[in-house]
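[stage:ingest] chain + small molecule (DQA)
[stage:ingest] validated
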Amino acid sequence: MAALSILLINGPNLNLLGTREPEVYGSATLNDVVTSCTGAAAGAGATLVAFQSNHEGAIVDRIQQAKLDGVDAIVINPGAYTHTSVAIRDAFLGVGIPFIEVHVSNVHAREAFRHHSYLSDKAVAVIAGLGVKGYEYAVEHVARTFKKRA
Ligand SMILES: O=C1C[C@@](O)(C(=O)O)C[C@@H](O)[C@@H]1O
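[stage:predict] done
[stage:export] tokens:
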């Protein structure tokens, strides 16, 4: 049987992980994150493709493409679009691909505008505040428990 296919999406400014506000986001880079997530997926027999964009429309396009590509699950850190994007919410509703929302920081312990997410009520799970380890835990969970969709 074909391997479970996972898409990892990172939104705006997450390309700056490692140098961006290290007291909030730590010192690991996005490359480190992709490497550890690829390993976590492979260790559980799944495949992982990673995508990062600073542009809302590009993220919407990538979520729509995921359906055409037969992606089984998405792990996403939408960055600031978490708190603003009806378009990304609608993209998830449109494709129906199950997803886990990840935040490096504990958004609930930060400014009030970070407490609301346009995605959380549609996510399978939300991980916030476990640093970049949260990505790996999400990928491992998906790889071990999610089923192929088609
Ligand atoms: O860009 C980000 C990163 C973030 O999603 C996190 O990973 O903690 C939290 C968001 O509020 C912020 O805009």
